[in-house]
Amino acid sequence: MSGGILEALRVVEVSAFIAAPVGGMTLAQLGAEVIRIDPIGGNIDYRRWPLAPSGSSIYWASLNRGKRSVALALNTPEGQEIARALIARPDSPDQTGGILLTNLPAAGWMSHEALSRHRADLIMLRLTGNHDGSGAVDYTVNCASGFPIATGRDAAPVNHVLPAWDIAAGLYLTTGLLAAERARRKDGQGREVTLALSDVMLASVGNLGYLADVQVNGTVRPPMGNDLYGALGRDFMTRDGRSVMIVAISNRQWRAIGKATGLTEKFAMIGPMMEVDLDTEGGRFQARGAIFALLEHWCAGRSLAEIAAAFAGSGVLWGPYQDFGQLLAEDPRCSEANPMFGRIDQPGIGNILAPAGPLGFTGQARLPPRPAPMLGQDTDEVLAEMLGLSAAAIGKLHDAGTVAGPASFETIQAR
Amino acid sequence: MSGGILEALRVVEVSAFIAAPVGGMTLAQLGAEVIRIDPIGGNIDYRRWPLAPSGSSIYWASLNRGKRSVALALNTPEGQEIARALIARPDSPDQTGGILLTNLPAAGWMSHEALSRHRADLIMLRLTGNHDGSGAVDYTVNCASGFPIATGRDAAPVNHVLPAWDIAAGLYLTTGLLAAERARRKDGQGREVTLALSDVMLASVGNLGYLADVQVNGTVRPPMGNDLYGALGRDFMTRDGRSVMIVAISNRQWRAIGKATGLTEKFAMIGPMMEVDLDTEGGRFQARGAIFALLEHWCAGRSLAEIAAAFAGSGVLWGPYQDFGQLLAEDPRCSEANPMFGRIDQPGIGNILAPAGPLGFTGQARLPPRPAPMLGQDTDEVLAEMLGLSAAAIGKLHDAGTVAGPASFETIQAR
């Protein structure tokens, strides 16, 4: 028993890449038992870069922590039957299941209709690319979103590196899953819950006001580099070649910048000069060029350490830019000083610092980070526990090539 | 009764800006009753740009659709008492409440400890900037994440325009809320659920393998423009000055590109030339320069319409780049042809196309998009319904300035 808040909830995940795996991992980090079923040899994401020197995928291992792994010959009726039995297994007194999470094409044996014949109250979460079922991935959704054209200094598209739509989709899936499970406890009904990755994008573009802005004002917001739209903020270079982001949304934050930099009096000259009210967000946005000129000069004369010292305890909203290495090396939030982090022994990768889930619940210890399984690591145990198969029966399934046990990446390569 | 899957769940939101409002709106889109409480005159986000010609905030209206709005003098003991009564109201036979969602500093009367004295099983979701309670916003979290330095063509930081951390945080909050409410139905316990915006970022950087990559390989991934890392993909200019994203992750997608463009034979020369296996993701990534050279030439000779025609039904994973205006004007997914969209009459803004929530549930009609309330629109109704106050009692609260009714932005400006 895990002790997490979703203890006694069981979810089967048949997935690849980011969105559904993030959803499953989020549930596992809350204490649910998440069983990821993969084809023998791994799914299409199993060798995704970056790789560790051993050849193991750092990508796969990072997106599947805390899950159990079962490897089945999903291209055979026998393998499909075992998958179906795991998905549709009746609840036990101490565990609620009957939930499938997938972002793979869910046709044939894995359709909601087919699986529902084996468990009428099945909840199935299904992520597709587009709402009509056609394919799309984060990259092809993002290009359509408007954000790459609004990013950077000119109209040339700049793709985000963070797969933001996949992450949001993963968390919409966990939300939808818990909502459907809540409803099932009231009405006993199973449900298929559908989500399209491009709808996640479209909903977010709408939620942030971009669609209404075009409709009402007829304007498309131009790219403006790192300037914060409608308020005050930008990146500034420091004397030692680093960059900092400085932001003011509230008047309090705005005044804090003046006080901490000693620029209050000079800032006060800008209002009359630019004919705006600097005590409003819009006014500061309109006069940002003049404000930035003063802040550029101030930052360029100081090192990152000096700026950090000047801003400490000042109420200024700011932060240093860091690359991934600096994040790990320099940011105390990215270390065991932050209770979200711990060390794990990740097979094929080594002993590393890794995050647990970010949600904390009072009266409930946060589950520490757990490693990802090796592919097929839990096959035998899950078949015995959940389907009551004997060691002899499991042995026969191995001999027939219907299931596979733990395999390191090297073993699979050598086959 | 809304008919959504979270019907009969009630959440009080005391919030500003993006993260908690996205969380509350997501719940409202699933049928929960979400009551947003604001100070009279609006919270700090009430005038946020972009604005409609009327002065109404398009930003606020887009992030608070489908909620009810109550305006209270939150800086007075009387206003706080009403807020507390709404938050801590006992459940009725047909509605479960006792849930507060906030991303504001939750001290004093709004602390979990103080509110729990009025309802012992209170669930309170609290988003902070950092795990130690210090402040941070999407911009100051993002700069630290490593992504701005990995974005674009060189090491100069490029901020994302999409507030991705806020969106993810909003959806972690809905996940945590439903998990805590699930546990409460089992054990009757209230809980404070905490989430730090920077932990959302740190967890995601870890989940995507960046932290492990630095630890294991000692390398920091350099910015590589719009090239897809570890697979094949990039933007290409068309003859008519548009751009398209073309991606291949699977071998099937890779072969589809060759077939649709007629470049299969030329692609076949690249493997021996670059000494890589083009039937692997890594091989295509290593040889991407040569592959891109052929695709650049192919795209530059064709219009966007010609490329769309060549790729239709081909299995090629691609998409056009669109700005926000083109998204609305040209993309059929962003129209009423997509069942997620509908038209709403938004006070102060007009009749506009707006998205509903992206999750669909079989056997449950998707709730259509609903407008955001005017500030204080539901004050009187909520006080009467939830607290049983008479019209006379509510009138006295208005006279005393403790509550306020519906106010358009113009009314508030004129005060």
UniProtKB/TrEMBL annotation, chains A, B:
Asked whether the UniProt record includes Isomerase among its keywords, one would answer yes
Q: Identify the InterPro entries for this entry.
A: CoA-transferase_III, CoA-Trfase_fam_III, CoA-Trfase_III_dom3_sf, CoA-Trfase_III_dom_1_sf
Q: Which UniProt keywords apply?
A: Isomerase
Record-level Gene Ontology MF annotations: isomerase activity
Q: Does the keyword Glycosyltransferase apply?
A: no
Write down what this protein is called: 2-methylfumaryl-CoA isomerase
Organism, per UniProt? Teichococcus oryzae
